[in-house]
Amino acid sequence: MNKYEYKDMWVYIEHSGGKILPVSLELCCEARKLCDAAGETLCAVVVGELHRSEIERILACGVEKLIRVSGTGLERFSVDAYTELFTQLCRKYRPSAVLVGGTIDGRDFAPRFACRLPTGCTSDATQLVYDPKTGDIEFIEPAVGGKMMAVITVPVMRPQVGTIRPGTFKYLPAGARPCEVIDERFDFPEEKIRTEVLDFLPDEADESLNIADAEYIVCVGNGLKGADTLGRYRELAALLGGKLGCTRPVFDRGILPYKLVIGQSGVVVKPRIYLAFGVSGAVNHVTGITDSDVIVAVNRDPEAAIFGYCTYGIVGDMDEVCDAMIAQLKAKV
Amino acid sequence: MVSYSKLSPAAAEKLRAIVGDGRFQFGETVREEYSHDEMPIYGRFLPEAVCLVESTEEVSAILKLCHEENVPVTVRGAGTGLVGGCVPIAGGVVLSTMRMNKILSYDMNNLVVHTQPGVRLCDLAADALAHGLMYPPDPGEKTATVGGNVSTNAGGMRAVKYGVTRDYVLAMTVVLPDGQIMKLGKTVCKTSSGYSLLHLMIGSEGTLGVITELTLKLVPKPRMDVSLILPFRDIATAIASVPAIKLANLDPQSIEFMERDIVDSSAAFTGNAVFPTVVNGREAGAYILVTLIGDSEAELTAKMDRLGEVAEKTGAYDTLVVWTDGLKKDVWAARSAFLTVIEAETKLLDEMDVVVPVDRIAEFLVYTHDEAERQGVYVRSFGHAGDGNLHIYCCSNDLEEAEFKRRVKKLMDACYAKCTEFEGQVSGEHSIGHAKKEYLRESVGETAYGLMGAIKQVFDPKGILNPGKVCHDAEGGVEHA
Amino acid sequence: MLNILVCVKQVPDVNLVKIDPVTGSLIRAGVPAILNPLDANALEAAVRTKEKYGGSVTVITMGPDQAAEALRECLAAGADRAVLLSDRAFANADTLATSYVIVTAAKLLGSFDLIFCGKESLDGATGQMASQLAERFDASQLSSVCTVLEVDEDKRTVTAERELALGVETARALLPCLMTVEKTNYRPRIPNLKSWKASRTAAIEMFTSDTIPGLDRAQIGDPGSPTKVPRTYPPEKGPGGEMIREGSAAKDVEALLARLADKL
Q: Are residues A25 and A115 in the same domain?
């Protein structure tokens, strides 16, 4: 394989109910910068029908090539059909990179078509850097629970496949460019789709689990002594009119549900005030909170990384500080 | 009956000068948390001032001043007590040891640690482990201070093997009520040298002196441990297994019991449903949790085999092995959360901490449940099956407070009488405070109670240290709404 | 009778891994190796499926010899057979190479109807293994399964609920099917003494690169891994904020609330 024969960076455009998912547009914007650095062409791959207005949103990100795929067996996402589709497309067009949103579907099929090709696949990078010396993309991602950053490359094989979590990159459209449109026909035999959806039951709207748009967030980290000490943090969140969230280890310990996990592998938040109690400040958490107006960190360990990212920091016992905060907020009311 | 003086503004300024502005609260600035412990049903009494002390010298200076001024002084650790022991019922000054929270040094040759009294139990335990050592006393309330543990002679889960806090205190520095500093005990394990003032001080609930430094005995950390859960049909069958477990020569580190109700509450509250409720198709009504230690897996396996045989003979539904670190953490976290869970789900709460002979535990619990039902309150219980120390919580969510107190009084009168009949103790580890004085008096009898009062008189003739506690009568405080 | 496979991994308890503040390198000493927590949930789902429909559960892992301990934990919790793939030649494998070794070896053990995996590992956390294992088994794939509803051996299907972002999907897939399992409904059981003891002495089947017939050496370990890690570095320290040090929690909070006044 001569990797230099592989050109174009692709972004898979995931859409649902006629709307493009934000992560796909975020990836177009980030890949635009990579293409500028590499002197490559940015190409978006759309499977199925999309209204013109949505297509415009893709073009606004500076996409120069648009592959529109239609055919049987693609109406609804299936791992079987989409794996084969991307295997065939990659073999035909030979892109240098394929970026896929790290949604449930994206994380299901991207590693699978990478395996079928075969080529290297990475997930959850928080930075993408083009290295002109090697011609490779550096997928930089938090490792070991966010305590280290690891640079991952695919130095020999192509395409370089990566799934990227929603919210990792900013949606900052660079402006439209002339765009070539390619219509691609692909038929996948329905009988080869091995999964079928029988039913879908939307979650009952439990507002406490919807933290993405909360104005105030109280986040508990691994410093939390136990589930029995959670009450005060719920109380503080309620007093502020905000929501309770947590870091990944708190979910791992079985204390709070996954939907409350803030960070790269969970929810990305942007509150007015973000209060981190007992949060160490691992990168994969910090990536999910950087758009907060104010970050307050409370930690026993004066060396905790979170103090590097906070607006205000208090070194102390998280429970004590929380109790003091509750008492003083109550006194004000 | 003694009477006290109010803390004068002039004296308050002297106190402020001793500890500095940042560590002194007076009048308006005194925080509400100093008016109660974790059992607020016994009343809230706000101190006139709070000193957050940092050294023996400060404690001495404060006591000297208060002794001269005839102002009461009540020592307080983390405030996690359950009998009002650290509550300043006669007003005066609260002396918080929370900032005396330094572990001073380890003596690895003599296996002792020198520590300040305000170190939290969980911090001391973790730090000792990091040194390859274990501090054996293991009360459920891990955020209590070691000073508080010594003052109450706290026991905990490992008492069945290692004994109680008393057995691990080798020496201490105390400040007497008039401000004199005294060292008691030595870093040796034997003494036959006169009355043991050291042991008199242990468990005296801050009524004889203020502990400002401790030398505690440690043991090498056990190489391996395993916990086993034995589910039973009900509490009676569960408790009935305990003598057989003790006879099996397993030298268990702890033998705990817990009723199904508290396990369910804990699972619901913490989301940590680690105790299985249905075992081999049968509903568990109570559990015994045993921890074994050993030098090797072979040794532990042999012990587990013996325990398994006992479990089968005594009707356990199964013997579950808590082997991995993750499971151990979950199981013991659930166990440690019990009191917090009860506090969280209960509006009105009172407790008993009796000790009865191990073979009378089940009988005592059945009696308590029956009496509680008669009084219209409900009971949650768990505790140390290995040593007969029961934690019984009387709860209500629908009664008026006065009515609750009236009914619980009846319940407790009956239960403590039953406890005395069973040759038990009023308190295993929570102490007397001001809440259990009458029951202590009935339990030990007039002669013993009188001797206790006489001892208090010798140490503290003006009665300024923690007035109204254990065996001392005092008034002067104003209950704080 | 279902033939069920569970793919597991032994991982360092990354929550306990510390970074040397001076050198910036990982301090691994004293960090216990544990069964990847989400794999324990996958195992529980597998064992319950076996208990309902009959069959056997095989658990497989690739790792150093010490990973046998993780397999024993699985045997104690209901697995019937344990297989360890251990060889220095397997080291430094990415998910592509790892999935190749596991599937090549697993195919020697029989043909599996159901394959269960944890959602992701605590250490690598790429979440890619399941998809690549499914690809190599040529299995259908259901991710984020919260409940296995029904296995129909005659029709060769499995029906399961998947916990998606906005709700619960019920899906049916043809066997063989690989499922990744959510933790909520599959708390791992506490083994009883009998099965724990059996697990301590049970035979663990071992394979090396030499004893897996037909293994293509170009596809294993470092040579077989298209992704490389040219370097790692400690995360940059943030610029740092204003530290509030007023001497007590209450005073710190007072100072903080004063600064936040216009935001509250």
A: yes
Percentage helix, strand, coil for chain C under 3-state DSSP, each rounded to 5:
35, 30, 40
Q: Closest partner residue to C37 among B305, B319, B326, by Cβ?
A: B326
Q: Specify burial of residue A287 (Cβ count, 10 A radius: 0-12, 13-18, 19+).
A: buried
**Cβ B340–A228 below 8 Å, yes or no?**
yes
Q: Does C229 contact chain A (CB < 8 Å)?
A: yes
- Mean pLDDT of all residues in B275-285: 94
Same domain, A69 and A173: yes
Instruction: For residues A158 and A269, state if they share a domain.
Output: no
Domain identity same for A182 and A236: no
> What's residue B337's pLDDT?
79
Q: A226: domain CATH number?
A: 3.40.50.1220
Q: What confidence category does residue A71 fall into, taking pLDDT thresholds of 50, 70 and 90?
A: very high
For residue range A166-176, list pLDDT tens digits in order.
988 999 999 99
Whether A201 maps to a domain, the answer reads no
What is the ipTM score, two decimals? 0.92
By the 10 Å C-beta count (0-12 exposed, 13-18 middle, 19+ buried), A3 is classed as: middle
Q: Does the distance separating the beta carbons of A328 and C238 come in below 8 Å?
A: no
pTM exceeds cut of 0.90: no
Answer yes or no: do A261 and A291 share one domain: yes
Judge whether C37 is closer than 8 Å to chain B, CB to CB. yes
Percentage helix, strand, coil, to 5, in chain A? 30, 30, 40
Chain B contact probe: residue of C192, C248, C252, C254 with most B CBs at under 10 A: C192
Question: For residue A164, is it within any domain?
Answer: yes
What subunits touch chain A, counting only 3 or more CB pairs under 8 A?
Answer: B, C
Q: What is the mean pLDDT of residues B360-388?
A: 92
**Domains in chain C, CATH or no CATH each:** 2-219 (3.40.50.620)
Please indicate whether, in this complex, the C-beta atoms of B22 and C247 are within 8 angstroms of each other. Answer: yes
CB-CB neighbors (< 8 A) of B276 in chain C: 189-190
Q: What is the Cα gyration radius of chain A?
A: 22
Select from C27, C128, C133, C264 the residue whose CB has the most chain A CBs within 10 Å, as the one to mutate to test that interface.
C128
The answer to whether residues B118 and B147 touch, using CB atoms and an 8 Å cutoff, is yes
A130 and A225 in a single domain? The answer is no
| Residue of chain B minimizing CA distance to A253 | B330
Identify whether A159 is part of a domain.
yes
Q: Which residues of chain B are within 8 Å of residue C197 when distances are taken between CB atoms?
A: 301, 304-305
As a three-state string, the secondary structure of B185-211 is: ECCCCCCCCCCCHHHHHCCCCCCCCEE
At B185, the amino acid letter reads G
pLDDT single digits (tens) C107-139: 999 999 999 999 999 888 889 999 999 999 999
Nearest to B425 by CA among B363, B369, B327, B352: B352
**pLDDT over 90 at C31, yes or no:** no
What average pLDDT score do residues A8-14 get? Answer: 97
Could you say which residues from 138 to 157 on chain A have a Cβ atom under 8 Å away from some Cβ of chain C? 142-157
pLDDT, tens digit (0-9, with 9 covering 90-100), for B217-256: 999 999 999 999 999 999 999 999 999 999 999 999 999 9
Residue A96, domain member (yes or no): yes
**Cβ contacts from B onto C, under 8 A:** 50
Q: Give B 265-284 residues with CB within 8 A of chain C.
A: 273-274, 276
Judgement on whether residues A163 and A252 belong to the same structural domain of the protein: no
Distance CA B51, CA A5 (A): 77
Report whether A274 contacts C263 (CB < 8 A).
no
| Mean pLDDT of the B352-372 span | 92
| CATH at residue A160 | 3.40.50.620
The domain in which residue A289 lies consists of 207-332
Tell which A residues from 168 to 227 touch C, by Cβ distance under 8 Å.
Answer: 194-203, 222
**What are the structural domains, with CATH classification, of chain B?**
1-221+445-476 (3.30.465.10), 224-335 (3.30.70.2190), 346-436 (3.30.70.2740)
Residues A179 and A229 in one domain: no
B21-78 pLDDT, tens digit each: 889 999 888 888 899 998 888 889 999 999 999 999 999 999 999 999 999 999 999 9
Cβ <8 Å between C235 and A111: no
